[in-house]
Design brief:
alpha/beta; Rossmann fold; 8 helices; 7 strands
């Protein structure tokens, strides 16, 4: 029996990358898991892979665009409708596009990054708390970034959005700290996920370097001189989701190979 047996988790952006690794870890430990994504084909493939991985929990896919409040609220509502509760929320989806120095950045690029990372986190957290508070138990594991602690030129929209996630995390943790609910943010360093491969080249261009140089820069900035893996992030999420993580809240946890100064 896994130590998340009987728990219900919802992971946005759970069809690939970090979100998929976290969903896999939760399901392996017995949790029922709802994953979200925009592409039903990728959702079906992810469900099939997770269901065949030998874990104990059930897996469901809910299609939706987390940049829309209605879809964020729907994934929480459908998690509760399917499994009767929501115990663990991981608002993992996030990103940006059309990166540029601030002097050249468009309103639309900043708004998209905020919708994708910050507003999506706010909308799903607010919806989940309406169920967690009456139940007297919950785990919220937001997804920030090393850029939620440090600035970086050329990607200010992403940096701003991830800093906002950290601020929300600390505030909500204070609000629900006596209610059996913990609220933390993971701050991974660079990981070469599908999303990184899709958005990294434009980010590198806005910084005046190549994509390969961008990856090497991230590696060089760390103490371990390499990029982390998605499994490194999933392992920390698993701790926070468990009873063993009950004393950790309001924390911004670096998983960046020693890159961030705090």
């Amino acid at each position: 029996m896994g130590f998340l047996e009987g728990r219900v988790a919802c992971v946005t952006g759970g069809t690939r990358g970090i979100g998929f690794a976290i969903a896999k870890a939760f399901q392996r430990e017995g949790a029922d898991v709802v994953i979200n994504g925009r592409d039903p084909a990728k959702g079906s493939q992810a469900v099939e892979e997770l269901s065949g991985s030998g874990g104990g929990g059930a897996v469901e896919f809910v299609a939706g665009d987390v940049k829309l409040r209605s879809d964020c609220e729907a994934v929480v509502a459908q998690t509760v409708e399917r499994f009767g509760r929501i115990d663990i929320l991981v608002p993992n989806a996030g990103g940006g596009s059309n990166y540029a120095p601030v002097v050249d950045m468009t309103d639309e690029a900043m708004a998209e990054a905020l919708d994708w990372s910050f507003w999506h986190t706010f909308w799903t957290v607010r919806a989940a708390l309406k169920h967690m508070i009456p139940n007297g138990w919950g785990r919220i594991i937001a997804m920030s970034s090393v850029e939620g602690k440090m600035g970086k030129p050329g990607i200010a929209s992403y940096v701003v959005a991830k800093h906002a996630v950290c601020g929300l995390t600390k505030s909500v943790a204070r609000e629900v700290g006596t209610m059996g609910i913990t609220v933390n943010a993971l701050c991974p360093g660079a990981i070469e996920t599908d999303e990184m491969r899709a958005q990294g080249p434009s980010a590198a261009e806005s910084m005046g370097i190549t994509y390969e140089e961008l990856l090497q820069t991230f590696a060089n900035e760390s103490a371990i001189k390499r990029l982390n893996e998605v499994e490194d992030v999933a392992a920390v999420a698993l701790l926070l989701a468990s009873d063993a993580g009950s004393g950790i809240t309001g924390s911004l946890i670096s998983i960046d190979g020693g890159t961030s100064p705090y």
